[in-house]
Amino acid sequence: MTNWLNANTIQGIIRALLTFGAGILVAKGISNKEHLDSVISTLTSDETIGAFTTVSTIIWSVLHKQSTAAAPAASGTIPAAK
To answer: Total domain count for the chain?
Structure first.
């Protein structure tokens, strides 16, 4: 099975979600197309994507460490009853 969830796929999903949100804002008259085009181009820049990926990785790591700390040790022994 190939790994379809690569950086290009994630960037495409983010871009699609931003475009969807922008469409809603334009439809409701909150913003115009020119303003949203500049916002979307800024949000999909390499620096912004890199920062988002870094922050997401940190959050994922912290949450993963918390969930594995709560789980019993996988040493093959049964924890003693308290």
So the answer is: 1
Q: Give the confidence band of 21 by pLDDT, cuts at 50, 70, 90.
A: confident
At what angle are helices 7-27 and 46-70 packed, to 10 degrees?
A: 110
> Is the pLDDT confidence value at 77 over 70?
no
Helix (H) or strand (E) holding 11: helix 7-27
Range(s) of the domain holding residue 19? 7-57
Top pLDDT among 28 and 82 is at: 28
d(CA 79, CA 73): 8
Instruction: Assess contact for 44 and 18: CB atoms under 8 A.
Output: yes
Query: What is the SS3 assignment for 55?
Result: helix
